[in-house]
Amino acid sequence: MIKVIIVDDEYYSRKGLRCIIPWENMNCSVCGEATNAYEAIELAKKINPDIIVTDINMPEIDGIEMAKIIKQFLPNVKFIVITGHDEFQYARGAVKINALDFILKPIQVTEFTEAIMKAVELIKKGKEYDELAVEKYFLSIMRGQSSIKGVDKYLDISKNVRLVLINNDSYEEFINANKENLNIQIIKKIKEWAIENIENCYIFVAHSNIIGLIFYENKDIDFELLIKGIKNSTQGIITIAITKPRSPIKLKELYKIAKEVYSTCFYKGYGKIIEEEEQNNIHNNFQSSYEKINNIITEIIFNISNIDIKELNRNINKLFKIFNYYMIRKNVIIKVVFELILKIKEKLKELDISIDNLENIELENDYKQISYLKNDLEKFIDAAIENIRDYRGELEDNTIKRAIKFINDNYNKDISLTVVANSVYLNESYLSRELKQALGIGFLEYIRKLRMEKAIELLKAGYSLSRVAEKVGYNDYRKFTYNFKKYTGDIPSNYKIK
Length: 498
Hints:
about 500 residues; alpha/beta; Rossmann fold; Alpha-Beta Plaits; 20 helices; 10 strands; about 60% helix; rod-shaped; DNA-binding; Homeodomain-like_sf; transcription regulation; two-component regulatory system; Sig_transdc_resp-reg_receiver
């Protein structure tokens, strides 16, 4: 609200102006009344009014002289002069003090209201200009372009201030979606909220998507309401970075810290309040964690090679916990992850496993959030493991095929499952399961099948019973006869006759 003081030695004139003029409609508030110049001067010192409505003709010091004195400590205050006298010298005096209007009594409400509205418009423009000048001044200090000297004109250096950066994280999304109007709304709503909720707050636009606030330490500000308000009204996401309180003479340092606090969004996420913490772990200690990181990377590659999913997930989480705990710089983390991916590729090449499909998985050169980088790494590792599984599946298929070929070539010899397993370097139990799945019958049944089918062929060719038994792997023709009858339901001699 624009503050107004009414100065007139006549009681009813003052009350009339207070009551008949629609002050609130013009965003004005009558904050005080004075009956003479002395009272008005003291009142002006306390209230710092924007507009003073004054009668000229007052005892001892008239309105013109009073205005000259007040102008010395309130150079931007606007005067509207009222008088019942129409002499030229009064009008000339009003011009000297830059009075906006010179209104004769009796006052016409319309004329007086127009004068106030004109004053309000000029005050608004003046305030916008002043705010812009102060904003530029603070930014020049924070960016190291100007000295801190003179900051005490705006900030009480005996009190600590906080610096807050409010980042519109939806800025690029809205630009790409042709919703620039939402970005404008967000800036407007942040400014309105700050004016309404924070006393003595300086607002500045650091960038097109970042609003900054400077205010004296205040623990009762609920920034969560601002975050929710922006989301509800625009679907926009804002992140608020808040520094610890420091002296205004450290404004440049506060700005740097606020930017560092915001940069931790990479680790902590967006759309929340992030307050300055102790900086012990921020962007440091990479050297002290270097050996740990290398060891974990070695374990991750080992886990991938052996498809040990449980240990793999544990080590990936451990790696990113180190990144988060030490808040290692984003570019370093991205470099470490890229090197890990190269090592995974090299390991697959070493195992003679194709990496063609892995080349299609593109990682970004920059990431807004560490969780996005982790997700992309996990996608890459999942694809690599799938390649290893496919390779192992083909390898195992080939191994089973070799085992079956070995059996087919040696069925007429004294072979066992152990002998076959050793020939293809597989576990005996595993081979037994895979053979049954591939053949539909067990190892011994398959041997018997091969022998009996070959025996039938030889019997039909006219070979003797003893000769057939020998050729299909039986030293004892009686054992052969027993197995033949069990397999065919008939005796060998009947096949020979046929």
